[in-house]
UniProtKB/TrEMBL annotation:
Transmembrane segments: none annotated. This is BRO1 domain-containing protein. Residues 6-394 form the BRO1 domain. The keyword Coiled coil applies. Keywords: Coiled coil. One of its GO terms (biological process) is mitotic cytokinesis. Residues 749-773, 814-825 have a biased composition (Low complexity). It comes from Petrolisthes manimaculis.
Length: 861
C-alpha cells in the first residue's frame, strides 16, 4: 500500500519598501562619537539591502529564500539586544497574509513604528515559508519527507510562540493573520500535517499495521483539532476555500486508514468479526472523505483496497468462521502514537549568521557604561569644585591684603611687577573688549537653542492634537496607541531642556552683573602695563624690601603660586583619568550573564580616583595653614611699613580683584559658549528623533485612515428599502392584486362661493416619513461593524502643518552637564546630574566656580 501526503502551506505577509537608512543614521549619530559613526554606515546600508531581499520581494519556496529570512531575523534579534526596539522609530508596514484585497482598494495592512513589530512579522513569514517549503517536498524521498516533517513542526512552534507574544510586541489590534486565534489554527494545521508526513512515510515503508494504525489515529485526532480551529465563525472566512474541505476530508480519511490497519491486526489474530466491522467503517469513512473534500479521487486507492479486503473477510466468515460482526461503536478505541510536536523557536535560525553590528555593545552594557560615567563625572565635578572654590577663597583673601602687590610696591611710584604681569596677561587675552564681545553673543546662542526646543514642542503638540481629533471622530475604531503614551519620554526630556535653558539665562545675567561691577578695573588692566602707572596714585613709602616681614611674605607668595600650580596639575589629572569599562562589563556579562554595575564601578573609581582625592584633601589642608601664616606675616609687614598710601593700596586691591574676575569670567564665557553650542547639537539630535517619530506616526495614521475608508466602502449597506404602503398594489385575501376601493363622491359645499371670514392658514409641513420596515438607517455617519482590523472613511480630514519627521527616544543632557549658577537646589534634582558648589555663578553645574560645564560626554540613551 502506498499513499501520498497532499500537504499545503501558509501564505506569507508582504512588507512595504521603507527608508530605514535615515532613522538608523540619526540614532547612531545621537549615540556615538563621530569617529565611530562612520564604521556603522556600511552596516546600515547592508541591513537595508538584506531587508529588501528578505521581505520586500516575492520569495521562491526554496531553502535559499529561507536562509535569507533566517539571516534577516537573526540580525533583528541581534540589533534588538543592542538598541531598544522602541528607539528605532521606523514605520514598518505589513499587509495581511490572507486578505486578497477588493476592487475598492488594497489589502488590509498595519503600520507600527517598532522593531518588535518587524520582528514578529518576519518570524511569521519564516513559519509560513517553512510550511510552503515543507509542502513542496517530494514524497518519493525519505530525506524529503523527514525535512518536510521537521519544517512543519518548526512552523507550528513559531505560530505557537507568536500567539503568546504578538499583543505585547504590537501593542495595538493586529491584522487578522496575527490574531491569537488565527495563529492557534495555523499551529494546529502545521503540526497535523507534520504527523501526516510521518504517517505516510510509515505506510510507504510498510511498517507494522499496529504502529501505522496508531499513527493514523493520532493523525485523525490532530486534523480534527485543526478543523475545529479552522471552522470558527471568526476565522473561516480567512482561509482559502479549499482548506476546510481538504482538512475535513483528511480527518475522515486518516480515521478510515486507522480502522483499515487495525483490521489488518485483527486479521492476523483471526478476529474476523472485528475485522469486518472495522473494514465496513473504513469504507464509510473513505467515502465520507471524498464527499467532505469534494474530490471523488480522494483516498481512492484506499477505498478499493478496503472494499476488496471486506469482501474477502465476509466470504471467509460466511464459509469458515461464522463470527458475529459487532457494532463498531462497541469496539475499543485505537491507541494513538504522537510523533509530531511544535518545535521551540530557535535562538538563531541561520547557521552562518554574522552580526553586521558586532561592534555595537549590548543595551545592558551601554546602560552600565552610562551609570559608570555618571558616577565618574560626579567625582570629577566634586573634586574640581573643591579645588576651584578653595582657590577662589585664597585669591579673595590675598586681594583683600593687596598681595603680592604690597610687597612689590616698596617705592610707591612704579607699577608692581605682579600687577604688570596681570595687565600683560589681560591684554594678551583680548582684554575687556573680548569679554564684551562674548557677552554680546550669548543672546544669539540662547535664541537659537530656544527656537529649536520650541519647534520640538510644536511638533509634539501638533501630532497630539491630530491624534486626539481623529480619536474623537472615529471613537473606538481609532485603535492606534494614544500620543500621550508614546511621547511621555519626549515631554520629560523637553522639560529638562527647558529648565536647563532657564538656568542658563540666570547664569548669563550673573555674568553681566559681575562684568559691569568690575569693568573699570578690567579696562585699566586691558590698557597694558605702560598705561597702568598713570592710573595709580603715588605714595611715599620707606618700607625696606629686605626686612624680615617682607621676605617672609615673599616666601609665602611663592608657596601660594606653588599650591596653585599643583592644583592645576591635579585638575588636569582628574579630567584625563579614564578606565575602559566596556571590556570589563562585556567580560562580566559573558561570564555571569549579568552585570553588577554598582560594585564594579565603585571598585574601578576607587582605584583610579582614590589617590587624586587624597591629593585634593591634602591641598585643602595646606591652604588653611598657609592662609594663617600669610595673615600673620601681613600684620608684621603693616607694622614695619611707614608712610601714607591708602588710596594707592585701595586701587591696587581693586585691580587685583578685577584680574581675578577677568579670568573667572573668561573661563565662564568660554565654557558657556561651548555649552550653548553643545546644547544646540543635543537639541538638533532631539529634533531629529522627534521628526522621525512624527513621520512614523503620520505614516501609521495614513494607513489606518485608508483602512477605515476601505472598510466603509466595502461594507454592506443592506437591501433596498421597501416602497411605502401607498405605492404598493393592494392585495386581496388570496394574495391577488385587487383594485383599490373607489373614493366617495365629493360632498356638496352649501357655502360654496361665500366669502371666507379669515384668510386660509398654511397647513403645517407633513412629518418626516418613517422608514419602511427592513430599510437601513439614514446614512449620515457610516456605521462600521465590529471589524477584526481597523479600516478608513472617505472625507477624513488630514491634519496639515506637520514637518514630518522619529519615535520617543530620550536624549539626556551629557553627564555633569547641568550648567551654571548655584541657586537653591530643587526639591528633587534630576537624577544623574551632579550639583555644584554654592559659590559659583551658575546653578547646578559640576565645577563650583565655573558656571559652564566641562566638555560634555556624548549623549547616552
Amino acid at each position: 500500500m502506498s499513499i501520498t501526503a497532499e500537504t499545503f502551506g501558509v501564505p506569507l505577509k508582504k512588507a512595504s519598501e521603507i527608508d530605514i537608512l535615515k532613522p538608523l543614521k540619526n540614532l547612531i549619530t545621537s549615540r556615538y562619537q563621530t569617529a565611530e559613526q562612520e564604521s556603522y554606515i556600511g552596516a546600515i546600508n547592508e541591513l537595508a539591502k538584506l531587508r529588501s531581499s528578505a521581505v520586500c520581494r516575492t520569495l521562491d519556496y526554496h531553502d535559499s529564500s529561507l536562509e535569507t529570512l533566517y539571516r534577516y531575523y537573526d540580525q533583528i534579534v541581534a540589533l534588538e539586544s543592542k538598541i531598544p526596539p522602541s528607539e528605532i522609530q521606523i514605520p514598518f508596514k505589513w499587509k495581511d497574509a490572507f486578505d486578497k484585497g477588493s476592487i475598492f482598494g488594497g489589502r488590509i495592512s498595519l503600520t507600527v513604528a517598532s522593531l518588535s513589530y518587524e520582528k514578529v512579522c518576519v518570524l511569521y513569514n519564516i513559519a509560513a515559508l517553512q510550511s510552503q517549503v515543507a509542502a513542496g517536498q517530494s514524497g518519493d524521498s525519505d530525506e524529503a519527507l523527514k525535512k518536510s516533517a521537521k519544517l512543519f513542526q518548526s512552523a507550528a512552534g513559531i505560530f505557537t510562540h507568536l500567539k503568546s507574544v504578538v499583543h505585547g510586541s504590537v501593542q495595538q489590534e493586529p491584522t487578522p493573520d496575527l490574531q491569537p486565534e488565527t495563529l492557534a489554527a495555523l499551529a494546529a494545521l502545521c503540526v497535523a500535517q507534520a504527523q501526516e508526513v510521518v504517517t505516510v512515510k510509515a505506510i510507504n515503508d510498510r511498517m507494522k499495521d499496529q504502529v501505522v494504525a496508531k499513527l493514523c489515529s493520532q493523525c485523525e485526532d490532530m486534523f480534527s483539532e485543526a478543523l475545529k480551529h479552522l471552522q470558527k465563525e471568526t476565522l473561516k472566512t480567512l482561509w482559502d476555500r479549499e482548506w476546510i474541505p481538504r482538512v475535513a476530508g483528511k480527518q475522515s480519511g486518516y480515521h478510515g486508514l486507522a480502522h483499515y490497519h487495525q483490521s489488518r491486526v485483527c486479521n492476523s489474530k483471526k478476529a474476523v468479526g472485528e475485522e469486518i466491522a472495522r473494514l465496513k467503517q473504513a469504507v464509510e469513512l473513505f467515502k465520507a472523505a471524498q464527499t467532505r473534500s469534494g474530490d471523488a479521487t480522494f483516498f481512492e486507492d484506499s477505498v478499493g483496497r478496503s472494499q476488496r479486503a471486506l469482501e474477502e473477510a465476509v466470504k471467509d466468515n460466511d464459509f469458515i468462521y461464522h463470527e458475529r460482526v459487532p457494532d463498531v461503536k462497541t469496539l475499543g478505541g485505537i491507541e494513538k502514537a504522537v510523533f509530531a510536536k511544535p518545535t521551540p523557536v530557535a535562538e538563531k535560525f541561520s547557521s552562518s549568521f554574522t552580526d553586521i553590528f558586532e561592534t555595537l555593545v549590548p543595551v545592558v552594557v551601554q546602560q552600565a557604561i552610562v551609570s559608570y560615567d555618571t558616577r565618574k563625572q560626579e567625582i570629577v565635578s566634586t573634586e574640581i569644585g573643591k579645588l576651584r572654590e578653595s582657590t577662589q577663597l585664597l585669591n579673595s583673601i590675598l586681594a583683600s591684603l593687596n598681595l603680592p602687590a604690597a610687597i612689590e610696591d616698596v617705592g610707591g611710584e612704579k607699577v608692581p611687577a605682579s600687577l604688570r604681569e596681570k595687565s600683560l596677561s589681560v591684554s594678551q587675552s583680548g582684554g575687556c573688549e573680548a569679554l564684551s564681545k562674548m557677552i554680546t553673543e550669548l543672546p544669539e546662542l540662547l535664541t537659537r537653542n530656544r527656537e529649536l526646543l520650541e519647534e520640538c514642542e510644536r511638533q509634539l503638540a501638533e501630532e497630539k492634537d491630530s491624534d486626539n481629533q481623529l480619536r474623537n471622530q472615529f471613537k473606538e475604531r481609532w485603535t492606534r496607541t494614544p500620543s500621550d503614551k508614546l511621547t511621555a519620554t519626549f515631554q520629560t526630556n523637553a522639560q529638562k531642556y527647558r529648565k536647563v535653558i532657564e538656568t542658563a539665562v540666570t547664569a548669563d545675567s550673573t555674568i553681566r552683573e559681575k562684568f559691569e561691577s568690575h569693568r573699570e578695573g578690567m579696562e585699566l588692566l586691558s590698557a597694558g602695563p605702560d598705561n597702568l602707572a598713570a592710573s595709580l596714585p603715588s605714595a611715599i613709602a620707606n618700607t625696606n624690601g629686605s626686612n624680615p616681614a617682607t621676605q617672609r611674605l615673599k616666601q609665602l607668595m611663592e608657596d601660594v603660586e606653588t599650591l596653585k600650580a599643583e592644583r592645576d596639575a591635579i585638575e588636569c589629572e582628574l579630567k584625563s583619568a579614564t578606565a575602559d569599562m566596556k571590556e570589563v562589563f562585556l567580560n562580566a556579562l559573558g561570564q555571569d550573564g549579568s552585570i553588577n554595575e554598582a560594585a564594579m564601578s565603585t571598585e574601578s573609581l576607587g582605584r583610579v580616583f582614590g589617590p587624586l582625592q587624597k591629593q585634593v584633601k591634602e591641598s585643602l589642608d595646606r591652604q588653611e595653614s598657609l592662609v594663617k601664616n600669610v595673615q600673620e606675616a601681613h600684620g608684621e609687614f603693616c607694622k614695619a611699613a611707614t608712610g601714607v598710601g591708602g588710596e594707592r593700596e585701595t586701587q591696587l586691591k581693586k585691580l587685583a580683584a578685577a584680574y581675578d574676575i577677568f579670568n573667572e569670567l573668561l573661563s565662564n564665557l568660554t565654557e558657556g559658549t561651548k555649552f550653548y553650542n553643545d546644547l544646540t547639537q543635543l537639541l538638533v539630535n532631539f529634533q531629529s528623533k522627534i521628526n522621525d517619530f512624527c513621520f512614523a506616526r503620520r505614516t501609521e495614521k495614513e494607513e489606518l485612515m485608508r483602512d477605515l475608508t476601505q472598510g466603509l466602502a466595502n461594507q454592506n449597506l443592506g437591501s433596498a428599502p421597501n416602497p411605502p404602503a401607498h405605492h404598493q398594489e393592494a392585495q386581496g385575501p388570496g394574495g391577488k392584486a385587487t383594485a383599490p376601493p373607489r373614493p366617495p363622491p365629493p360632498a356638496v359645499n352649501p357655502y360654496q362661493g361665500a366669502p371666507q371670514s379669515t384668510p386660509a392658514t398654511a397647513t403645517p409641513g407633513a412629518p418626516p416619513m418613517a422608514a419602511a420596515p427592513g430599510a437601513p438607517p439614514q446614512y449620515n455617519t457610516p456605521q462600521v461593524p465590529n471589524l477584526p482590523y481597523p479600516m478608513n472613511p472617505s472625507g477624513m480630514p488630514t491634519p496639515q502643518g506637520y514637518g514630518y519627521p522619529s519615535y520617543p527616544v530620550y536624549t539626556p543632557m551629557p553627564q555633569g552637564y547641568f550648567p551654571y549658577y548655584q541657586q537653591q537646589p530643587p526639591q528633587q534634582p534630576p537624577a544623574g546630574y551632579p550639583t555644584g558648589y554654592p559659590a559659583a555663578p551658575y546653578p547646578q553645574q559640576p565645577y563650583a566656580n565655573y558656571p559652564y560645564p566641562p566638555q560634555p560626554q556624548p549623549p547616552q540613551q
